[in-house]
Automatic annotation (TrEMBL):
Compartment(s): Cell membrane
Transmembrane regions listed in the UniProt entry: 12-40
GO cellular component, as recorded: plasma membrane
UniProt main location, coarse: membrane
Species per Swiss-Prot/TrEMBL record: Candidatus Accumulibacter proximus
Name of the protein: Na+/H+ antiporter subunit E
Amino acid sequence: MHRLLPRPLLSATVFLLWAVITNAASLGLLVLGGLLAIVLPLLTLPFWPEPPRLVRPWRAVRFLAVFATDIVTANWRVARQVIGPLCGLSPALVEVPLDLRDPFLATLLGSIVSLTPGTVAIDVDQQRWIMLVHALDAPDPQALVREIKDRYELPLKEIFAC
């Protein structure tokens, strides 16, 4: 079973995302999603570093709820900003110093920041452990740094005990 599903959580995530994105109401779409859930992890296995061990799964569930809420509220905020006067925006490039020292978690943090509307992680410098973030509106760049560290980096450190 481990040979067929080397990363079962990734396979489950691919399948669930496929079902949600395609609004899979037919058996054919579900079968295709199942095939993708098996094939994609197998094809990408050589590129995956060994992820850190999940130590606090209940904290992960809470973190996912916070992250989902942040995505919804950020979508709303960005939509209002784009529809409103653009001259009121304060775009910024912000350097976020990382306490994480695990390449997998640093990449995960960059992905989380990029998935939240209004911010994009441009680079994760693993030599200096700095993440460069572009923000659509950051009138106080240090507040953005604190928010990323408090809402995302600290929980990741707790979840994976880093």
